[in-house]
Amino acid sequence: MQFNEFYNGRTGLTVGINKTLFSRQTPYQKVEIFDTDTWGKMMTIDGMVMLSEKDEFVYHEMLSHVPMFAHPNPKRVLIIGGGDGGTAREVLRHPSVEHVDMVEIDEVVVQAAKQFMPMVGDFDNPKLNVHYEDGIAFVERVAEPYDVIIIDGSDPVGPAVDLFSEAFYRNCYKALTPQGVLTSQTESPWVASYHPAIRNLFHSLDAIFEVSRMYLAFIPLYPSGMWSLAYASKGIQPHDPEVIDRVVKGTTSMGAALRYYNPDIHQGSFALPVFVRELLR
Amino acid sequence: MQFNEFYNGRTGLTVGINKTLFSRQTPYQKVEIFDTDTWGKMMTIDGMVMLSEKDEFVYHEMLSHVPMFAHPNPKRVLIIGGGDGGTAREVLRHPSVEHVDMVEIDEVVVQAAKQFMPMVGDFDNPKLNVHYEDGIAFVERVAEPYDVIIIDGSDPVGPAVDLFSEAFYRNCYKALTPQGVLTSQTESPWVASYHPAIRNLFHSLDAIFEVSRMYLAFIPLYPSGMWSLAYASKGIQPHDPEVIDRVVKGTTSMGAALRYYNPDIHQGSFALPVFVRELLR
Prior knowledge:
The structure is a homodimer.
Chain A lengths: L1 E7 L2 E15 L4 E7 L4 E5 L2 E5 L3 H15 L5 E6 L4 H6 L7 E5 L3 H10 L11 E4 L3 H6 L5 E7 L13 H9 L1 E10 L9 H14 L2 E8 L7 E8 L7 H14 L8 H6 L5 H7 L1
Parallel strand pairs in A: 6-7, 6-9, 7-8, 9-10
Antiparallel strand pairs in A: 1-2, 2-3, 3-4, 4-5, 10-12, 11-12
Helix pairs in contact in A: 1-7, 5-6
């Protein structure tokens, strides 16, 4: 058996499947977990790969450590989505963290991840608070602001479509402390059908935040293998000397826990090819 | 119809095919050209994607401009392989170039590229000299050395297997001028079956050259989308200040011809994830 995810026509990714471990249509989406021939366990939502056991470290390290080291002292962190638990796991490696709110709309994602991909999450950590509700509504009524907000949603179709809207990011800005930093996953620059969503999202970030930048990561199970992420802040540049200093010290003390992210990658991932820069205009 | 290239089990790339334009078994390999649903014309050799019309600029720009700007004044350039003509096209954008030798073992690759993918090559350029012979033997008997040597071969199976051998790189070293620079394509760090070849090749380069480094590019039609390349030289570091100065000036004057490579990419592409560094040990 094979899983296919086509990003255009009949072109895309093929993954050999040994066995379907879980398959359920929830009120929001279809959640499936497969045992694959190459990448260990793999979760898909509505036919799109979310993560695999063997490549998830790239996405979760890059989405988490870039903003967590950018902020000088992140204590309160909000994760929108992220039901598999991988983003929270990386956030919780930072000793300054006191409180993490993770807002996942679909409880089935968390339950399936806990049962079939227990190597990903760190759900027993007492600093982690999981809320099963709509992240869009959650950020509208934040009382106590966050130092870091991470948008770990699925693609801009289905329940995640509003995670690409300007209104949502305006609420995120209000929900951030004065030194606040935000990151979000923003699709593949190689896939033409995502270009309008990517461009709109970055134009929104440019309008709302003092600083907004795109950065890139090699994710083999996402369409084309090139994935973009957004960095936005109220003033902290990702390559401020104090940030680089924190990255160097922090990655050294995290040691073998990190498998992708390091100081070179923190800096190099913000280098954008010519065609990607043009897409952002 | 679909084309599949599996890098492990039944996992890999799938490309929708509108039509097969060319298919021939040569004395060396099977050469095919397809019209695809997403990437324009696409050439494969022995079932492995070599290039497509719409993504070839990444590979050719990254393989060519990194060494061509590293060298202070590249006049004589040797390309081993590269039968589609894309590497020579990028090399020939550098005004210092006087003479390019391209050594392609299989004339059918050049003929098929000229007929079906004429947008790729610059074969009428009078500075380009195409030789249909074995590149391994060619570098054994170089009389007049080259400033830049580019190894643009296929995967380390079939006729290209010796392009990953230490003996070959020793001959390349001898065939380089005192400021010589070499680059080579070195497979995907995500694909476990290539790890021994990658590790051996970089250990050889470390032993032979004064400088050797890996760099990376996002190539959507190569397995996993993450592709590695080797940079080696007799002393010039890829990020020497004079090199960066040449990159900044040179990319400005090349203008819209470049679609991937720019000064940020020249520097950022040498940032290696933790798991890639570990692979090179």
